[in-house]
Amino acid sequence: MSSDTTPDDAEARERLTDMAAEFYDQFADGDVPSMTLPTRSKSNIVFDEDAGVWVYGDRTSTRSANSVSGARKLLKSVYTIDFLAQQLDEDRSSTLRELYYLSESWGEEEAQFNNQSESDKLVEDLEIVSGVKREDFHMRPEESGAKVMGPLRIREQTNRGDREIHCQEDVGQGGYQIPNNPDTIEFLDHDTDFVLCVETGGMRDRLVENGFDDEYNALVVHLGGQPARATRRLTKRLHDELDLPVTVFTDGDPWSYRIFGSVSYGSIKSAHLSEYLATPDAQFIGIRPADIVEYDLPTDPLGDSDVNALESELEDPRFQSDFWTEQIELQLDIGKKAEQQALASRGLDFVTDTYLPERLDEMGVL
Amino acid sequence: MSSDTTPDDAEARERLTDMAAEFYDQFADGDVPSMTLPTRSKSNIVFDEDAGVWVYGDRTSTRSANSVSGARKLLKSVYTIDFLAQQLDEDRSSTLRELYYLSESWGEEEAQFNNQSESDKLVEDLEIVSGVKREDFHMRPEESGAKVMGPLRIREQTNRGDREIHCQEDVGQGGYQIPNNPDTIEFLDHDTDFVLCVETGGMRDRLVENGFDDEYNALVVHLGGQPARATRRLTKRLHDELDLPVTVFTDGDPWSYRIFGSVSYGSIKSAHLSEYLATPDAQFIGIRPADIVEYDLPTDPLGDSDVNALESELEDPRFQSDFWTEQIELQLDIGKKAEQQALASRGLDFVTDTYLPERLDEMGVL
């Protein structure tokens, strides 16, 4: 699935119904209907060194109607394809959870889902086989995207008309709320030098209050912990389409490094979407273990689960650079972690007056 | 603390420094400095039948410098008052977490906080004694407010100037993001008949996609689980200042009834703020246990913790009406719970075409 593939509704609908047509043809030819897709287990995830993202490997599994459970899976696929095609016809959308509940209204009881993880997985399978993202089937994610503040003017296509919004001048202190499907956004013009993704709401508010976005022409994107799919997609588009450097500012602990990893390299769960969601050129600002030492930040001791997570990151292909090995080993050595707001121990303006300008300069971003 | 008390910065500063001045006077009079405040334990929370909210009772505790730990508490209070007064002078703001970290920069080591719960609690104490809300000390909550969509035009005072925003025409599909301090919002004009607070993001998106806000002149407020302080404050202001009915639409389980309870009656943790945050006239839409039966909704069985929570709600003064007793007993009887999105089992439009119009009509809101 290539990141610039955003099929229109008719094309998405066609790719969906092609799958159903294939079952039909298999029947017509006297074959047992089946569907082949990549094996979706951890053992079939490979790190694509060139693209710098996780993708599925070469192993495939076949789902065939030659067993009752296989036939039931294909039946559910056909019902789901029918629902999605109708949704596209009517220009409607729905969430994964609604699809699960909606299946209760299907006349054929065997086609109804037993639980939501079953319907979620089926939609992912359809994404993989059709090469169309679920957003293009008009399946909205349950979680909304984050907030954006910075010198960027966008046009969003909403279901009640287009809206032109400048992400500093036309929004309140809370910023612009990314819609569930950020592919409805068109970038109009901007005065942005780089994207700054921020993990916590408290730090996001600090940067906005101190006017960091304005002074440094930064587009501040609030990640809010593990970032939603919509946030990662928008970040990637800002990088690819506007050619903006992407930087990530998180707490200094192993869980936050994973947040950086999911922005930059993609996640195992959505490996078929890495090219659509991941920004391999994203750069890590900090908090780095070296910052804890250099700035003598207030810390908490590493717990057992922190140590385990750091050790598993040492083995993780996404963290195999000299930079990460050094930082992770240093952190294991000092046995401490720090939050980004710990920078406030040097005053409320230290982060915007000193820490970020110095670090971004070192990184070649400023 | 009355809900229409929004002191300006000078007044907030004065009430703070008055506290410090009192310590000074006590010293000057040869007395041991002390501070008296309501006892902040569950045993001293009473339900104010007239106002319909939780408030503190008559018991008080005195914090005196006649012990080392009492003296240390007063010292921390003085340092904190000094910081807050300076923050007001400079028209800055900060979060509770920043205050905790910032204390590490204070010259006097004895005044530094040992952990954030200590500094959080001290700020609450200062709110209670001074009668000024922490927002008026310019302490921002860590959590941001929710999203609003509906026929309302507001003016928000941001730190980069005023912004006029119509919460349908000037925002994307994601809506207007409530700022951390909603008292910076002025209501300009509106065409709103009622406020509809919605628990989940999926249902909020469904209502917006189906244009429910537009068709019924509803202001849709996304609660996002247990609502942030900013969301509850905004809801109360919409009710009090614009005289709008407030309705609450949640999942049908005991935890969601508590969400309704915190919107309408306030919470034990913030009993000193009930008059500022709670909307006792708020009405519960559902999902009601009776809806589970009437609409034959897809359900999950009640777990042990659900049953315990329901039983404790039967004893809770906030749920002592006939309506709630009947609903909770019915739920214990059927042993089931349902999510709001379970309404999708009757089609994606059932909630906006049938369920909400019928229920709101019954409730006298439409």
TrEMBL record, chains A, B:
Residues 194-360 form the Topoisomerase 6 subunit A/Spo11 TOPRIM domain. Its cofactor is Mg(2+). Its EC number is 5.6.2.2. The active site is at residue 101. InterPro entries: Spo11/TopoVI_A, Spo11/TopoVI_A_N, Spo11/TopoVI_A_sf, Topo_VI_alpha, TopoVI_A, TOPRIM_Topo6A/Spo11, WH-like_DNA-bd_sf. GO terms for molecular function: ATP binding; DNA binding; DNA topoisomerase type II (double strand cut, ATP-hydrolyzing) activity; magnesium ion binding. CDD domains: TOPRIM_TopoIIB_SPO. Mg(2+) binds at residues 199, 251. GO terms for biological process: DNA replication; DNA topological change. The keyword ATP-binding applies. It catalyses: ATP-dependent breakage, passage and rejoining of double-stranded DNA. Transmembrane segments: none annotated. The keyword Nucleotide-binding applies. Keywords: ATP-binding, DNA-binding, Isomerase, Magnesium, Metal-binding, Nucleotide-binding, Topoisomerase. Residues 142-191 form the Type II DNA topoisomerase VI subunit A all-beta domain. Residues 72-138 form the Spo11/DNA topoisomerase VI subunit A N-terminal domain. Homodimer. Heterotetramer of two Top6A and two Top6B chains. Belongs to the TOP6A family. HAMAP family: Top6A. Relaxes both positive and negative superturns and exhibits a strong decatenase activity. This is Type 2 DNA topoisomerase 6 subunit A.
